[in-house]
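Hi F.,

I've been meaning to write this up properly since the lab meeting, where we talked about keeping a consistent format for the predictions we share between groups. The idea is simple: the sequence comes first, exactly as it goes in, then the structure tokens exactly as they come out, then a line or two of notes. No screenshots and no reformatting. I'm using this chain as the first example so we have something concrete to point to.
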Amino acid sequence: MTPPCNQDTRGSELVAEYGLEISGESILITGVSPESLGENFAKQVTIAKPAVFIIAGHPISKLHDVVNVLGTAHPDIKIKPLVLNLLSFTDVRKPAENVISLTDVPHIDILINNAGIMAFPYKQTEDGFESQFQTNHLNHFLLTNLAMEKVLSSKAPRAIIVSSGVHRVDHIRWADHNSNEGKNSQRWPTYGQSKTAHTLMTVAFADKLGSRASFPSLCVRVCLCPGVSHTNLSAHGIHDQASFCVDLTQKDNSYFTKWLWGMAAMTSRTWIKVLRRIFMRARSAAGLVMSMCEELF
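Output, unedited:
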């Protein structure tokens, strides 16, 4: 029986049902490190035997920890590490060039923009942008554009952009994305801005690039808000979890929502909606935005 797609579905159920859909395909995912969503996804999907898995992350020590585990468990899959520092435009362009030049990877069937940092204190990158905005959005926008020709050369290209429900607490401050050089910066609205940008990026890519795919109806671009899960994403706030959560609750209250406390922790089930969309190659999902397994728009 075909498994449902909800908070109780296990990734292993979808791999068993739909694994043949990605067997032999090439996948690139960002944001892979121990105890991350990226690691969880990689461990589940490798069971389905993709031909190539490009694992992108930073720093190299954490990246290799995951690559070694996957390589040992699945020696028949080409596991390719890609050092990707999303705090620097230069450190994204170089890895992207490396991916494009891979002669043994003629196309990328599935591109997953998963990496991110959350609710960090204000800091500018070497390029002059607030660190969350550049890490979460600008450099994923750059990477996706640089790799897009390789993605669109696939017969069934899929691009997945992992956003966050926290997009609800702020829009994009077009005229002041650096929050007056940090003077007006607040950790959750700043994070929310980057995730709002992710959502708009998803819709724009679907609109502008879908017709260029070999099979446009299969060019899936899904923006996902995975829900609350226990990962290393909030590790920097581990010593002040109460303040970390209270800050977000206050922002929600200002919008008259009770979002955070209505969510269920999904742990390894967080990737269910990603797996299902990838395996089923959903023909109607271009530009789709999902939250907690539910389609929003």
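Notes:
The chain is about 35% helix and 10% strand.
The longest strand covers residues 52-57.

If this format works for you, I'll send the rest the same way.

G.
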